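Input/output pair, single chain:
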Amino acid sequence: MVARQDVPKDPELKSALLTARRGTAFFGRKLNELSDDELDAPSLLPGWTRRHVIAHVGYNARALARLMDWANTGVETPMYPSRQARNEEIDHGAMLSPVELRELYKQSANHLDVAWRDTPQEAWGHEVKAAQSRTVPASETVWWRTREVWIHAVDLDNGASFGDMPADVLERLLRDIIEAWHHRGDDQDLRLEILASGGVTHLGDTAAVDPVVVTGSLADITAWAAGRSARGVSSNRTDVPPAPRWI
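Output:
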């Protein structure tokens, strides 16, 4: 039997879908490495066990699939009824049996992937609303999912790191974080220096006279900016400061 192919043919969209699918496979691999008993251990997210992370990633796929339904049908189907409903859903999912929790992840990921695969090219431009009520084209769901699976694979605290992420994911993620800081004015007097073989890239408040400078590789700076780790980064101050809030 020949595998069904994606309906959309736009090269940029197909490349983005491939990155999201690789992230989904990576999260699934890190999940499968954990025994059932290990699911009860803390994750890297304060107050959440690994169970909460898995439930969140599973229900996130269902929420994004609802947005794809909206794009395809024109019938408004929000990601979540409310933030409280989202939180209660995650808490409920964290109490599922290990078998049910693993199935939630697999089935929800497959559901979203089928929704992406069968969405015609024109529907990807239809507008939907994010959980924060921002109106965006349905194509944004691909990046949202990409970000979720790659970051939360690290949050499982099972050996994954930001260094496992593709460079283009790290670059866009860091750009998103810096834009969020700038929108709130949290980037004042903060400069990031990204070290690479081709030289140093300066980001943040590059016009500051006496900025706090945080230096490191792209992966390490992004991990720090996302509030996950300060390993591998240094600062021109005595201690590396905590990153401003991202979300």
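The CA atoms of residues 131 and 219 lie 27 Å apart. The chain has two domains: 11-160, 167-235.
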